[in-house]
Structures are given as structure tokens and as C-alpha cells.
Design goal:
alpha/beta; 6-stranded parallel beta sheet; 4-stranded parallel beta sheet; 7 helices; 21% helix; 18% strand; elongated
């Protein structure tokens, strides 16, 4: 495809682009013999900024498999990133999300092996839902920088994101739902489970190298019963710390039973192995 053909497609579809009718645009692209990924790569190679084209949402599969995309900042008017929109962009290193964003689709950034950081703008006012497997197998992703109000973390959302160290769920105001295997295989040093985390799926934190689990901000025994279910925190290490609320014998009993079910033990004063209980 020649540069003038790209320009012609963009000019002919200006109305569709403004309205976010990308299916019509992609019909024209397909008729020219070009794939979505090749179209996006061509835009990047020829000095166009693809992010400026997506003013209402990023379509499904828009950049899937792109080998040209390394950094992207999305327009502040975008509320949604479509399914697999950036999946398999193996050279993508960082993305800056707009404060208008409300939903990241299923597998939106899955298999982005070079992705290290997701930047969130200050002053976020909307809540954000993360789709199933949205960041699955992003093995170099370290975390999110900025404030974000998460309401849903889909199934396998960060599965095998083995470098993930920090995540901003503590900043959320609304109830949070965490799907099955959402953080499977992640390397959190510490996680804080707050009262507004209302639902946690099986294997949500399994096979994760968690050292500190903070229950002190929960205050809800029913939630701790869910979180200490045998399938939530399987394959914990032999050494760690759990922080519990003061004067709550029921939660303490739940945690001790959980350790026993996991084949783990409480650490004695003169031992190096085992889990320590701290109260705040």
C-alpha cells in the first residue's frame, strides 16, 4: 500500500472516523488488500499518529501483532479499549491511558512481552474495568503508575505477569471484583486486601510470591472467609507475614486454619521458617 492510498482512505472516511464507525473504515481497508495491523504499522512508519484517529474508542484488534508500536498515549476522549486491541505488540514498552477510560477489553494487552509500565494520569474521576486476560503473559510489566479506581479485574487478567510488583487497588472507592486466576504467578511483595474487595475468584493469587498479606483494613469476617478459602492463595511460600485487625479473634482463627489447610505453620520466636502474624 502506498502512502497516497492511506491518505485517500483517511480522507474518504473522515466522517466515519469522527463518529467512531471503524467497521466501515476497516471495510475500506480490507477492500484495498490491507490488514488492520499492516494499516496501523503503515501509519506509524509514515509519521501518522494512530492514537489521534481513535477519538471514541480503540477498535477490537486495531494494533494486534504490530511490530512498530513502542510507546503510545491515547486521546483523552477515549472511554474504551477493544478486545485484543494491542495484543501481541511485542515491542510495546509503555502506554499512557486517558482519564476518560472506563473499560479495557478482553486480551487488550495480552502477550505484550516488552510492556513495562502503564501510566495513569492524575485526576482520574471515572472507574475502570479490566477485561479477562487483559494483561496476561506480560512478563515484564512492573505495574501501574498513578491513581486509578478499579471496579473489576477479570479472569486471568494478570496471569503470569511475573514482574508485577504494584497495583493501585487500594485507591478504589467502589466495590472491586477479582476474577479467577487474576494474579496467578505474580510477584507481589505485599498485597493489601481492603473492605471494598467484595468477590475473589478461585486461584486469584495462586503461585504468587507474596511475602506480606494485609487483612487489617478488611473489618469484614465474611470477606476473610472468602479470601482464606483454600483455592485463593494456593502455593504460598514457607515464609511470610499476615497483618490482621486488632481484637478480632474470628479473623485470626480463620487465618490460622487457612495456614493449617495449606500445610504451612506459624513461625515460632526462635525459627526462621513459618508465617508471622502481626496486628494493626
Amino acid at each position: 500500500m502506498e502512502k497516497y492510498e492511506i491518505i485517500e482512505i483517511l480522507e474518504d472516511n473522515q466522517d466515519n472516523i469522527e463518529k467512531g464507525n471503524w467497521e466501515k473504515v476497516y471495510e475500506t481497508i480490507s477492500e484495498s488488500g490491507c490488514k488492520r495491523r499492516d494499516f496501523s504499522d503503515f501509519l506509524i512508519e509514515n509519521g501518522f499518529d494512530p492514537s489521534n484517529l481513535f477519538k471514541t474508542y480503540v477498535p477490537d484488534y486495531a494494533f494486534m501483532g504490530s511490530h512498530r508500536l513502542e510507546y503510545i498515549t491515547l486521546s483523552n476522549s477515549i472511554p474504551e479499549i477493544g478486545d485484543s486491541a494491542f495484543s501481541w505488540c511485542t515491542f510495546l514498552q509503555s502506554i499512557t491511558l486517558p482519564n476518560s477510560l472506563k473499560e479495557i477489553g478482553d486480551k487488550a494487552f495480552a502477550e505484550c512481552s516488552a510492556l513495562k509500565m502503564v501510566y495513569l494520569p492524575e485526576g482520574v474521576t471515572s472507574t475502570l474495568s479490566l477485561g479477562n486476560a487483559a494483561f496476561r503473559n506480560c512478563e515484564n510489566l512492573e505495574g501501574f503508575e498513578g491513581t486509578c479506581y478499579i471496579t473489576k479485574i477479570g479472569k486471568s487478567c494478570f496471569e503470569n505477569a511475573i514482574s508485577l510488583k504494584f497495583f493501585p487497588w487500594e485507591n478504589a472507592d467502589d466495590d472491586i471484583e477479582i476474577g479467577a486466576s487474576a494474579f496467578y504467578g505474580c510477584s507481589f511483595g505485599k498485597i493489601t486486601l481492603t473492605a471494598n474487595i467484595t468477590d475473589v475468584g478461585n486461584y486469584a493469587f495462586s503461585d504468587s510470591s507474596i511475602i506480606v498479606i494485609d487483612f487489617s483494613k478488611t473489618r469484614y469476617t465474611s470477606n476473610v472467609q472468602k479470601w482464606t478459602g483454600i483455592w485463593i492463595f494456593t502455593l504460598l511460600g514457607k515464609v511470610g507475614t499476615v497483618i490482621l485487625p486488632k481484637d478480632d479473634e474470628q479473623i485470626e482463627s480463620l487465618w490460622k486454619n487457612f495456614l493449617k489447610n495449606q500445610g504451612l505453620k506459624l513461625k515460632e520466636p526462635d525459627e526462621t521458617d513459618g508465617w508471622n502474624i502481626r496486628y494493626e
